[in-house]
């Protein structure tokens, strides 16, 4: 039976984007029928800006209407939502039995506190360390703060939720870049960060990420080799242009790292 058009989900995403990965990971967890439309971040198509999302950022979710092909405009009655965190909360609200968030208000509050820490502490440290030459202690401190939220076993709330989907795509990308020596950080700082993340200090978060990696939904949505290939391409472009992404200019002294 074909999916109900009124409930159909189309999500515009990019494979290398951790923000997109948050959404694809969550959608796979829920088993909600959805249609991904893949966007090339190096060559964003004109139809995406003209017909779908003028800002041209991913992820972007369309809920309702018929199945959409690459260059088609969403129907007038569809719900259109940008921004990964807003999309995750929307999905949790629209599909309350999907397992994205528990019904318990106290657990939902804990999820929001964890997500807030990811957004306000970890991501600035992530960007600062990888692209701006920030010291290693900032990113390790941010990860340690997130680790403190974790219970003795299981996921952020015990059972899996969007709190885990918010952080896991970023943590795996950090691990992949450190392992492959990719980034604009000092080589010694990279080695220090990698060694620290695999020390007893971060044993709990390593168990947590291993638990995420074991989930079929994560295996289906994470391809480290492809990510490294895409990141290397972007890094080469960034060194030539001085810009890694809109609003993220590389300091001149780091371009040759």
Automatic annotation (TrEMBL):
PANTHER family: GLUTATHIONE S-TRANSFERASE OMEGA, PTHR43968. It holds the Pfam family GST_N_3. PROSITE patterns: GST_NTER (PS50404). One of its GO terms (cellular component) is cytoplasm. This is GST N-terminal domain-containing protein. Gene3D superfamilies: 1.20.1050.10, Glutaredoxin. Residues 7-99 form the GST N-terminal domain.
